[in-house]
Amino acid sequence: MIASRLIGNFVTTPPLSPNARRSTGRAVVLGREKLRSAELFDTRPVLNAREEIITGDNSSFRYLRMARIALQPEAPGYTPIRVTLPPNQEAVFYVNRGRTTLTTQAGEFDLEMGDVVYAGIGESVEVRCDHELADVSEYRAIDCHTRHPTCRVRHSDIEGTPLAADVGTKRPMTRRTVYKLVDQNIQACRLLFGDTFMQQPGGVGSYPPHFHGPDGPSGLGRDAKEEIYHFRCASVIPGAIPYVLQNCARPLETLNTYVHLFDEQAINVTPNYHDTMAPPTVDFMFVWCLGAYTENERDWARIVTQPGFEDEW
């Protein structure tokens, strides 16, 4: 098992509108003049605020949404943040760094880095910080119709269990541990959630290239899952700007094509094959959140692997 660890620095930004957070990544597709586009998002938090990152207006997501909360009691403007979910939205609150306390109708939960709280539809959640820093990502799924229990999953609870899957044993650069924090251990309508840590800098994640539209292979039907990747990157060379390359090839394409992503950026990987690679000097991790097109169809392993890569798991 590859242990979870803090990667990258805590960076903030002045308030940004959701539209200002959206950008377009582009990659060259061999033999085509038109560049392939991908939806990218600036995920940097605003100190002592809750900021919408991914919305229905600045993305093509049907169901998934993202916000970021950063709290620092010693900084100006600190006050606990209250989030009241609409009656058709569920959420996962994930601690990127620091510690926080979430108070819900189901009780009070103390969380450390990597821990999550799943909040059922209509839940009221207060996020507060009694320590130096609380940096929390909030992932939501809309159009949900069943209220499931609000509960906590500590990262340490699943370490060393089947929910911490060691994969990529065939090739050293692909070795990683995929922590499935919200999987079949949690009842939910649409959400699946976790984080992934590489064994080494220059690693390859979410390999081999795969697609969550198994009733395709070129389409997104009842069994499909849309997905956000949120990256944190750091270089072992001081002063160098770290980045990863994210595959944005489409199903039925035989040639992979990659777009650059930097620290504290997220990408909509839904329409593309998923695999991520880093230069030899870059260490990275990523948080992933899937939203099922069909409620209660939450088997994320129902995928299409790029032809020729079936034996690369």
* Morphology: globular
* Uncertain residue ranges: none
Taking the sheet with the most strands, its summary is:
8 strands, antiparallel
Based on secondary structure, the structural category is mainly beta
Outline the structure in words.
- With 313 residues, this protein is mostly beta strands.
- Helix content is 3%, strand content 44%.
- The protein is built from 2 helices and 23 strands.
- It has helices at residues 18-21, 155-158, and strands at residues 22-27, 36-42, 49-54, 64-71, 81-84, 90-98, 100-104, 107-111, 116-119, 124-128, 134-141, 151-153, 164-167, 176-182, 191-198, 204-211, 225-235, 243-247, 258-262, 265-268, 274-277, 282-292, 304-305.
- The strands form 4 sheets. The chain has an 8-stranded antiparallel sheet.
- Strand 14 (176-182) and strand 15 (191-198) form a beta hairpin.
- The longest helix has 4 residues, at 18-21.
- It starts with 17 loop residues before the first helix and ends in an 8-residue tail after the last strand.
- The model has no long low-confidence stretch (mean pLDDT 94).
Q: Which key phrases capture this entry?
A:
6-stranded antiparallel sheet; mainly beta; 2 helices; 313 residues; 23 strands; 8-stranded antiparallel sheet; globular; 3% helix
